Amino acid sequence: MAFIATSLARIKPSPTIAVTQKAAELKAAGRDVIGLGAGEPDFPTPDNIKAAGIRAIEGNDTKYTAVDGTPALKKAVCLKFKRENGLDYTPDQVHIGSGGKQVIFNAMIATLDPGDEVIIPAPYWVSYPDIVLLAGGHPVFIETTLESGFKVTAAQLEAAISPKTKWIMLNSPSNPTGAAYSYDDLKPLTDVLVRHPHVWVMTDDMYEHIVYDDFKFVTPAQIEPALYARTLTVNGVSKAYSMTGWRIGYAAGDAALIKAMAKVQSQSTSNPCSISQAAAVEALTGPQDFIPVRSDRFKERRDLVVSMLNQATGLKCPRPEGAFYVYPSCAGLIGKKTPDGKVIATDGDFVTYLLESEGVAVVQGAAFGLSPYFRISYATSDEALKEACTRIQRACAALV
Prior knowledge:
single chain; 400 residues; alpha/beta; Aspartate Aminotransferase, domain 2; 3-stranded antiparallel beta sheet; 13 helices; globular; EC 2.6.1.-
C-alpha cells in the first residue's frame, strides 16, 4: 500500500522553483548559467525595514503573536488600503499570513467544498491550480491570448461561470505576463460579477506598485462597491519592498471569511514570524519614495529585454504594463530543429534547448497553462540581461 496520499498525485512541485534549483545546480557544477527564472526583486530590503526587524529582535519581540497577525500590522494594512486604494477595512477584516501563498491557501481551504469551481485565467501563477486542487476544488481555466493582452473578456467570464462557481482569481499585474487590468479592462468584468452573487472575487495585487508608463492601478473592490463584501483583496510586502524571504502576505475582506481563514491558520503554521511582522509595519508605514525609483529601473530593464527579444528570430514579445516578467511567444520556432537534429515540438523543448546550448534558464509556458510561450524574469542586472538576450538571439538563429 502506498504511504503517500493519493491526493498529492493531482498536484506538482513548483516549476519555477525547479528551474531556479536546476540553474543553481549547473552553476555549482561549473557551468556558465544565467538564471532568469526567479520571481523576486534583486534589490535588497531597504535599510529602515531591516532596522525595524533588528529592533524587534533586540526588544525581545520574539514570542507568539495573535494567530492571524499583530494589531500593529493589521492597523498598518488598514491604513495602506485606505491611503492607496480608497478602501475602508477594520482590523477584523484583515488576515496576515506567512506570504501571499499561505493567505490564498487559507482562503481556499476555508471556503471550498468538493466539486466547487474556481475560475483561473491562463496563463496563471503556477500555484493557483494546485492550491485549488489541494483544497478539494476544481480549477476552470479561461485561456487568454497575446492579441487580447493576456486579459479575460467579459464574454469569456460569463461563459465560464456555472452554478458551481465559487471564486474567480484575478492577478494584476500578472505573473507570468506582466499584463495589468486598467479600469476600462476591469469594469466589464465587475459588471458580469455583479449579476452572479454566488461568485466571490480573489484579487492578487502583489505587483501593485510595479507598473510602468503612467499606468493607473485599480482593484475590483474599488471599481464596484457591490463587490466589496465578496472580494478578498490579497497583497503583501514581498515584491514592492524586496522582502520575499521575510514571508509576510496579507488580505482584507468579509469578516466571517477572515475569521475562517484564521481558524485554518491556527491549525497549520499559527502566527507569522513576529520579527517579520514588525518589519512589515515599517514597510507599510515608513518611507515609500524608493518604490517608484526601483520601478523605473525595472522599466529600463523591461524595455531592454523586449527590444532584444523582438530582434530574435521566431520570437514575439509583447510589452507588459507591470510586474518584472515578459512572456514571449515562441510559436515561430515550433517545428524547427536544433543544430544536432532535435525537433522543437513544445515550449518545454525550447527552454531545454536554451539551457543546454546557451546556459540560459527560463520557464516554459506550459507551467503557466498557456503554450507556446516562455517566461523571463528581468529582476536581475542589465549586464546579465544583455548577455542572456544575446544568447537567446544566437540560439534562435541556430535553429533550422
